[in-house]
Amino acid sequence: ILAAAIATIAAASIALPLSAAAQSPIIIKYSHVVADQTPKGQAAQKFKELAEKALPGKVVVQVFPNSQLFGDGKEMEALALGDVQIIAPSLSKFGKYTPKLQIFDLPFLFNDIQAVDRFQASPSGQSLLNSMNKKGITGLGYLHNGMKVFSTTAPMNLPADAKGMKFRIQASDVLEAQFKAVGANPQKLAFAEVYQALQSGVVDGQENTWSNIYSKKFHEVQGFILDSNHGVIDYMVITNTKWWNGLPADIRKGLSQAMKESIAFGNQVAIKEAEAFKAKVIADNKAKVVEMTPASKAAWRKAMAPVVKKFEDEIGADLIKAAQNSNQ
Ligand code: LMR
């Protein structure tokens, strides 16, 4: 009996560290480039809260904002290497992985964020979440930020005013073509470098959402903002397919649900708070905010229309049509 008891204790003491190891939580790193107060920042925090509540002791989510862990240019590689598990790059930053997502950069394609939402929810939009599966990337969902506006050092109302100005752009060939269409000089720069580039005069302007402009203080180093809503900055929340599929089924299910809810939360923030961020920029009284008149909008639309034609073959005419239809 004694021997059996000793054997049991011995087995237990060996088994204990092993089972403790098996139960140690899975660490999930969620890295992004914007501030905590933005829709993406808030959605990432919400995901942490929901995932840890749904899977207590099983997962720990670490959120890294402000390009702290990885910035543009490094985060996709880090995801492939397993150094980060969840990232949410802007849809403008997937050009190297799939030409299809370039659709979101086409100027004046979507009238507003509601149209973007309808397109993303449509079968065409949903199918794009799987457009990078062969590259080992799984799309967990779309996340809104909002419509873009232009900020510049010098006044800019009509497309002719943009001629010769240098603009920071995200890493997107469509955005490059968009600025070239009005005779401007686009320059691809990581998000973390934008403030410095504007402040030092490396570039004269940029395009972004109100939440990014306000939280990164771009309006403090710019003279003018043209409220153009000429395009969208939204995200795809993505993960490493191999890592995701290798998770225990109950954990993957819990994380999927937490992601779905965190995206719904972030989307609400995006839609509700865009105007509030704009109001804060105006209240700061640093850059002059100019509304775009219908006549000016028509001129910009006309000047940038060739960009849609230029990328039609790469993106697909049917997909563009589906996106246009989401405006109704
Ligand atoms: C940008 O680079 O301007 C944006 O994509 C940043 C972001 O993640 O919203």
TrEMBL record:
PROSITE patterns, alphabetized: TAT
Gene expressing this chain: dctP
Organism of origin: Polaromonas vacuolata
PANTHER family: C4-DICARBOXYLATE-BINDING PROTEIN DCTB, PTHR33376
Gene3D superfamilies: Bacterial extracellular solute-binding protein, family 7 (3.40.190.170)
Pfam family, one: DctP
CC annotations in GO: outer membrane-bounded periplasmic space
Signal sequence, renumbered to the chain: 1-22
Any one of the GO BP annotations: C4-dicarboxylate transport
Keywords: Signal, Transport
Superkingdom to which the source organism belongs: Bacteria
Family stated for the protein in its record: Belongs to the bacterial solute-binding protein 7 family.
Protein name: C4-dicarboxylate-binding periplasmic protein DctP
